[in-house]
Amino acid sequence: MVRAGLRSRWRLEVEAGEHQRRDGVEQQRLQRHFGFVQRWQRLVQRRQRLVQRHLHLHLHLQLVHAIVLFLRRLTLLAALTACDDTDAVRPEPDATPPADRCGAGPRTLELGTDRPFVKNPEQKYQVEEGNQGGFHIHVSLRVRGRIDPDDADIELRLNHGDHALGEHVTADWLLTIEPDGCHYPLARIVLLDEGGGLLPEERLPEVTGVPLRLAAGIETPEGGARAREMVTLLLPAE
Fold first, then answer.
1. CA–CA gap between residue 21 and residue 26 (Å, rounded)
2. Strands 118-119 and 163-173, bridge-based pairing
3. In percent, how much of the chain has pLDDT > 90?
C-alpha cells in the first residue's frame, strides 16, 4: 500500500516535471518568436525611414533641377535681350508710304554687316562676347523689291551641320527705308550648345574658321525674300 502510494506520488512528480519542462521549452520558443518579430519590426521601420529619406532626396533633386533649368533659361533670355541702345531703336512707319519703298524689280535679300548696311562678300562675321555672358554675332539684312517694310517677320538660323548653333526671330517689325533698299541692321545671333545653353568659350574653336550655314528670311503681307550663305565665324578680337 505504501509502495503503491510512493509510486503514484513519484509518477505525479515526474509528470509535473515533464509539464514544467515542456512549458519552459514552449516559453523559450515563444520568446524566440517574439524576438524575431521585434527584429522584423525594427527592419521594417528602418526600411520605411530609408524610403522616406530617398523620397525627400528625390524631391530635393527635382527642386534643384528645376531651379538650375530656370536660371539657365533666365541667363539665356538675358543674353538674347541684352542689346545695345542702338540695336533697340525701332524706326517709325512712313505716314504716306509710296509704292515700292524698298525698290523696284524682283525681291532679293542680302546678308552683310554694320549700320547702315555694308556688303560682306567673304561672309565672315566677328564673334563678340556679350555683356551678360555668352558669345554672339551681328548680321545685317538688306531687302529689295516690292514688300511691306511696316510689317516684316524676320528669321535667321545658323547651323553647324545638324547642330542649331543660333537663331534670331522677330515678328511684326519695321524695316529701315534707305535709298538702296530696306535694312534690318545688326540682328544678334547668340551662339548655343546642343542643349540650348550658352556656348562656352572653350568650344569656340569648334565653330570658328569652319564653314557654317546661315539661312535668313523676311516675310511681309506683300511678299518676302530669302537668302542662304555659307559663312565663317572669326574668334573674338584680343
1. 9
2. unpaired
3. 51
Cα separation of the two ends of the chain = 127
What φ, ψ does residue 169 adopt, rounded to 5°?
Answer: -130, 125
Predicted pLDDT at 237: 77
The helix/strand/coil state of 53 is helix
User: Residue 53 pLDDT more than 90?
Assistant: no
Cβ contact 147:99 at 8 Å: no
CA angle 152/155/156 to nearest 5° reads 145
Q: Is the pLDDT score of 68 beyond 80?
A: no
The whole-angstrom separation of Cα 62 and Cα 39 is: 35
Rounded Cα distance, 88 and 194, in Å: 28
DSSP 135-191: EEEEEEEEEESS--TTSEEEEEEEEETTEEEEEEEEEEEPPEEETTEEEEEEEEEE-
Q: Residue 108, SS3?
A: strand
Burial class (CB in 10 A: 0-12, 13-18, 19+), 62: exposed
C-alpha cell at position 112: 552683310
94 HSE (CA, 13 A, CB side): 16
Cβ proximity of 180 and 127 under 8 Å: no
